[in-house]
Amino acid sequence: MTILLEQHIATIKDAGKKLTGTKRRKFQAQVTIDYLNSNPRLAERTFGWGRETVELGLNELRMGYTCVNNVKARGNKKIEKKTAIKNRYL
Fold this sequence. Notes:
Blueprint: H1 6-18, H2 21-36, H3 40-47, H4 51-63, H5 79-88
């Protein structure tokens, strides 16, 4: 394991915050592999990243495929869809 200075940790955290989705997971996984011996718990403690996210990124790198996020399915639905579903069951 490489010893990281506080300045390096701050730079890596900042770079991780600027990425999103798959790119972020792959970046976090690669940093974990390079500096933390592929240990997601240590990445969580050192950089404040979610352990599950780092594990997913490590698995994506290891297996060679990317997990798809269904971001549009999250959140509050439009009122038109909500009432249509309610009216269908009445």
